[in-house]
Design goal:
Helix content is 44%, strand content 16%. The protein has a seven-stranded parallel β-sheet with strand order 3-2-1-4-5-6-10, with helices on both faces. A three-stranded mixed β-sheet has the order 7-9-11. Helix 4 links the parallel strand 5 and strand 6. The model has no long low-confidence stretch (mean pLDDT 89).
Length: 325
């Protein structure tokens, strides 16, 4: 039996589908949201990362646990709640695995938990984690949670850590923050872009890499699962070419976006919406562009698909969802 925390998220929903397609028995842990699982013939279990007893019940009889669930934040506040979910929650998952006789855990970290500098050298799994109180709460929490996962391997729980970059792809029922941004771009509803970008990776490639890591990677190993660095301008051009809408013509430097960021935050609050560019997001756009998945390629046969294929498939999936409403 394979148990998955965060099974109703973007990665979780795709992971459940991939494992079911391979004939693996899956138990999907759910907290509140279940839309990504509604059409699937899968066992579900209610669980909360802050409730160790619920995790022990959910892991009963499981041989493998994929730990994906986390609180995602692109803001600078709310450390206590983020820490409780991401750090204490990961500690609870580890303890529940050990108590329930789980053999192996695959923990999903984040590329932003790693030190990005020096920017002129490839970022690998050997970079230090960002544990300073000066970094954004989400980044700090993922770094602290990864340390918990690393210690689990030392305590006898076979543990493998996968480190995705900016994930995008189909079956995005939330939709995710990046999925929302892609939809807005394709609809021509983003008036201006920022000079910067991300390393974008297809969720299906992340899932394939994680499954292979679970099956063949030695305990204690870590693997970056990256895709392709593309600027927001390049993303917009591909998305708008697919949708037929004109791409935004204005691109502003990051320093100007930072200057206007408090105004955008206030407007978003008035409109009860998520700010398009937060300080945390703008900082992430300055991240290392040379993110190496060479270790995953060597050990796991990891090979991300073309960026254009990912954007096309994601927008096609969103269009199918709209048509079904």
């Amino acid at each position: 039996m394979i148990a998955i925390t965060g099974a109703s998220g973007l990665v979780g929903g795709n992971l459940v589908r991939a494992l079911l397609a391979q004939g693996s028995p899956v138990r999907a842990l759910v907290h509140r949201e279940r839309r990504a699982l509604e059409s699937l013939n899968v066992e579900t279990a209610s669980a909360d990362l802050t409730d160790p007893a619920s995790l022990r019940r959910a892991f009963e009889g499981a041989e493998v646990v994929y730990h994906l669930a986390s609180a995602i934040s692109i803001n600078m506040g709310g450390w206590e709640q983020i820490e409780e979910t991401n750090v204490t929650g990961t500690r609870n998952v580890v303890e529940a695995c050990l108590d329930s006789g789980v053999r192996r855990m695959v923990y999903f970290s984040s590329i932003h938990a790693y030190q990005q500098e020096p920017l002129d050298q490839p970022l690998t799994e050997d970079r230090p984690l960002l544990t300073s109180r000066d970094v954004p709460p989400y980044v700090r929490s993922k770094a602290a949670a990864e340390l918990v996962a690393r210690q689990a391997a030392e305590r006898g729980l076979e543990t493998v850590i996968v480190i995705p970059t900016a994930i995008i792809g189909p079956n995005d029922f939330g939709p995710s923050l990046l999925g929302q941004a892609l939809q807005l771009l394709a609809a021509g509803r983003i008036p201006a872009l920022v000079q910067g970008g991300y390393d974008w990776v297809d969720v299906r490639d992340v899932v394939d890499g994680a499954i292979e890591a679970e099956r063949s990677a030695p305990s204690g190993s870590r693997y970056i699962l990256s895709g392709h660095w593309r600027s927001l301008r390049e993303l917009a051009e591909v998305a708008c070419q697919t949708s037929g809408k004109p791409a935004p013509w204005l691109t502003v430097p990051i320093w100007l976006a930072e200057w206007f960021q408090p105004v955008m935050a206030t407007l978003a609050q008035i409109n009860h919406a998520q700010p398009l560019y937060t300080q945390t997001m703008l900082e992430a756009m300055r991240s290392n562009r040379q993110i190496s998945s060479a270790r995953a390629a060597r050990d796991l046969g990891y090979a991300p698909r073309p960026f254009e294929d990912t954007i096309g498939a994601t927008l096609a999936w969103f269009q199918t969802q709209e048509a079904a409403k």
